[in-house]
Amino acid sequence: MKKNSQEVKHNCSFCNRTITIHSQYDMPIYDPQTGFAICKNCIKDIYNFIAEHDKREEKAVNRKFAESLDDILAKNKPHVIKEYLDQYIINQDYAKKILSVAVYNHYKRMKYGYTHDPKDMNIEKSNVIMLGPSGCGKTAMLQHLAKLLDIPMAVTDASSLTEAGFVGSDVEVAVRNLYYAADKNIERTEHGIIYLDEFDKIARKSGANNSITADPGHEGVQQGLLKMIEGGVVEFTAQGQRKHPEAPTIKVNTTNILFIVGGAFVGIEDIIAKRLKTDATSIGFGAEVQNKNDKPKYNSLIHKVRPEDLIQFGIIPEIIGRLPVICTLEELSEDDLLKILTEPKNAPVKQYQELLSMDNVKLEFEKDALYAVAHKAIERKTGARSLRGILEDVMLDIMYEIPQSNEPRRVIITKDCIENHTKPEILPLETSKTNKTTENN
């Protein structure tokens, strides 16, 4: 057989071997002007060296983080976490205990994963589902928790997420939000907390509410969240545009990200009551006679929620299996709201008092005025989240007028100010009292 006269050969600049070129893949890198070239075997070797280096680097980072976990665990025992939350959140003791234990166990799971062979045992994540009415403190509790632990946390509205192919945000946006909350640090991102708010809004429709039209925000979104919540590599674009081959992507492993989902789950108390009534139904002399007016209250029902109630509500069983910890919060009473106004470290009343003290003004709220604020919040059915708005409405004119003079004064907010928007009482503050207040501060 005659040798092909058109056969092309070239030397690799790395290994100096003479390579017979059959296709561009035999010599993937070649510069005809300088003659610089790298053969495919050298490229494979370079890739393997880089991959091994990355693995060593990753192990070193994991080792460093595993060492820091001992310090984190020692400082953040469940009772310590709860005591910290007590300073900012009124009541909700049951929810505080559940979250404290869930976070502590999550860090212990991470330590186990970094110090043991994954073949030994796989400890599942303590992902949490939170149920509670609007304004009961779900988001506030998590924000203070993230602050204590010094880890990034991102809140994403689950109702804005859509199934792939629909207009809206892909499920990966939750991880991207955490990436930016962690200042684009992938290591911190992979050890943060993702809170999916309004999770009840993506419950699948069933029964009488079933839709025959496309459903971009329900079961498909829940299916899309499965792998992410369980733990896996999520890929997203940095700029937030839809993924396509040309767009550079960022990869984040969600194995050690704690997922907490929450929502009001309006109507779930009826599902719980119906199940309890069915369970308690009996026939005969021992049957319990119930009055039609004896309707159990929300707070007595919500703590009895079971996974089957959530499935009945519209959360798919696969998601429930990945959210083993159920955290329930109670409705806030008028007395609870009164405490929220004045007792926590960052209480709204304390904030306004601090702001006005900078203008030599002592701000006082009569007790009836505080009750009027709490009563208004109850009427609005928005819980603690409306307290600040009610106070802001009342304080607007005062905060506008007060800076016009530096004279020490005393401002008293009465019940009439809250209910009828009358002007508060403004009195001169004695110099001796001012000096005394300054000394105390």
Q: Would you mind describing this structure in some detail?
A:
The protein has about 450 residues and is of the alpha/beta class. The protein has 3 domains: about 10-70, no CATH class; about 75-205 and about 215-270 and about 295-330, P-loop containing nucleotide triphosphate hydrolases (Rossmann fold, 3-Layer(aba) Sandwich), CATH 3.40.50.300; about 335-440, Helicase, Ruva Protein, domain 3, CATH 1.10.8.60. About 45% of the residues lie in helices and about 15% in strands. It has 17 helices and 14 strands. It has helices at about 40-75, 80-85, 95-115, 140-150, 175-180, 185-190, 220-230, 270-280, 300, 305-315, 315-320, 335-340, 350-355, 365-380, 385-400, 415-420, 430-440, and strands spanning about 10, 20, 30, 35-40, 130, 155, 195, 235, 250-255, 260-265, 325-330, 360-365, 410-415, 425-430. The protein has a 5-stranded parallel sheet with strand order 6-7-10-5-11, sandwiched between helices. The chain has a 3-stranded mixed sheet with strand order 12-13-14. Strand 3 and strand 4 form a beta hairpin. Helix 1 packs across helix 3, helix 2 (about 80-85) packs antiparallel against helix 3 and helix 8 (about 270-280) crosses helix 10.
Strand order of the largest sheet: 6-7-10-5-11
Strand share of the residues?
Answer: 5-15%
The largest sheet is: 5 strands, parallel
User: CATH superfamily of the largest domain, called what?
Assistant: P-loop containing nucleotide triphosphate hydrolases
How many domains make up the 3D coordinates? 3
CATH topology category name of the largest domain: Rossmann fold
**How confident is the prediction overall: mean pLDDT?**
85
Q: In the CATH classification, which architecture of the largest domain applies?
A: 3-Layer(aba) Sandwich
What is the structural class? Answer: alpha/beta
Tell me the distance between the termini: 101 Å
Uncertain segments of ≥5 residues (pLDDT<50)? 207-214, 283-295, 431-441
